[in-house]
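Incident review: delayed structure delivery

Summary: a single-chain prediction request sat in the queue longer than the usual turnaround. Root cause was a stuck worker, restarted by the on-call engineer. No data loss occurred. The affected request and its eventual output are reproduced below so the record is complete for anyone auditing the incident later.

Affected input:
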Amino acid sequence: MEQQIVKVKNNRGIKVIPGFGISMFVTLGMLGCFVLVPLASLFLSVDALSFWEFREIVTSRQAVSGYAVSLSCAFLAAMINAVFGMLLAWVLVRYEFPGKRLMDGLIELPFALPTSVAGISLTYLYSDQGWIGGLAAKMGIKIAYTRIGITIAMVFVGIPFVVRAVQPVLEKLDRQYEEAAVMLGAGRIYIFFRVILPEVFPALLAGFGLAFARGIGEYGSVVFIAGNIPYKTQIAPLLIMMKLEQYKYADAAAIALVLLILSFLLMLAINSIQIYMQRFYKS
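Output delivered after worker restart:
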């Protein structure tokens, strides 16, 4: 007997799996327990502060400096990741070479490697006595304990987001459009910017946003190479840890809330741009 596939449709006529109500209940329950409730606890912790106390904490000179360091370095790292992540994804999709699978697996190393291990390794490598840092020091360039080192650490932890966001889109991209453009006499640069990039741009933007958000909140891989010099290389997540060590939980929650709002606004802006770009190219 042939197995019959049960087709269930919702009110809009879209097919859904059987047990949709239970699946949605479990999904919302998991989302609430592991995402919404922890985030809501920030608002409850900040509730102990008055408006003026909250304003004084989040606008203090030390806090503003921490925001500036984290945001500027995270943005620069995300821009670098967008360029080189696109190149890495292109090489992995369009070319065949020995060690391709090994390279593809190494892309995910920052996900699996403990951030503290990455921070110690990067600090040793880019310090004045390290392999790369020593060569840079001879040329008068200091990497460790500067914003350059912070940016490098954020590039390390953020590059997989861009590669893994762009790679599937490139794999599914129909090459017939490129062949048609070649037949019409278009050059490689024109084909890339007018044929390929519009298709890849939403995924590239998503990877950029994820890398940017990760850099803003990154702590383990950055804290060692940053040097934590007040008003120079002191990142915002470090300020949160300092407040927690001083048992100032409300102050730590206030700074964390600012970072949460910044990350939320960032992802909201990127999603809005993606929707606009999709509608623009469809029209």
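Verification: The radius of gyration is 23 Å.
Action items: add queue-age alerting; document worker restart procedure.
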